[in-house]
Amino acid sequence: MLTARFVIVDDVTFTQEFLLSTITHALGLPCLGRYASVKTAIAGIRETKPDLVMLDMNLYDEYGIQVMEVIRPELPAIKWIICTALEGEMQMRRAMASGAEGIVLKSENSDDLITAIESVLDGLAYKSAKIDALIGRRTTASSLSEREKEILKYVANAFNPPEIASMVGSSAKTVQNQITEIKRKARKNTYEKLMRWSRAKGFGLNH
Q1: 6-135 is classed in which CATH architecture?
Q2: Between 191-200 and 146-156, two packed helices, what is the crossing angle to 10 degrees?
Q3: pTM as predicted
Q4: Which CATH fold topology does 140-200 show?
Q5: pLDDT exceeding 90 applies to what percent of the chain?
Q6: How far apart, in whole angstroms, are the C-alpha atoms of residue 13 and residue 26?
Q7: 164 Cβ neighbours under 8 A, 6+ residues apart
Q8: Residue 45 pLDDT > 60
Q9: DSSP for 65-101?
Q10: Cβ count within 10 A of residue 172
Q11: Strand partners, 83
Q12: What span, in angstroms and rounded, lies between the C-alpha atoms of 180 and 186?
């Protein structure tokens, strides 16, 4: 169970509300503060010392990553996830170069957001499939076999292993072993996390 505390740094009220609602509802994490400028964010993070910061790249006329550049030397244990509306390759590479542990696009769904948070708090780096596509990088999903991708379609749609075994014409034990291998490749330690990851990566019976 995740126990991290987080803050939101974003100058759009709607985005703040979306992040707050999604994170608290799905993961039950407490929010310590919401900030809309570099100055207030730096002061607030220094005071609250959160475990995680959800950071927008651009705040009005300011560059949001300045917050991370100031705080990281002071509080190196904090994890950072950039949540941005910018989708250009240059912006994505700049975000990656910032050293943030996770990067998601505001245009993506809540599964991507939750997967990013779970991955980062588990000590893993995270970029969504859409960001990988924007910068021309291969994703973890590309290492999956065709059979594993077929199974993931059912995982994404919340079928359990015995149900999947019946649908793909295999034994429950074989499917369970395949799911274990998929979890290893995806670096997910629970079935629920794998289900969210598979949705975030675009798997599902309608794909």
Answers
A1: 3-Layer(aba) Sandwich (3.40)
A2: 100
A3: 0.68
A4: Arc Repressor Mutant, subunit A (1.10.10)
A5: 41
A6: 20
A7: 151, 154, 155, 175, 179
A8: yes
A9: HHHHHHHHHH-TT-EEEEEES---HHHHHHHHHTT-S
A10: 14
A11: 104
A12: 10
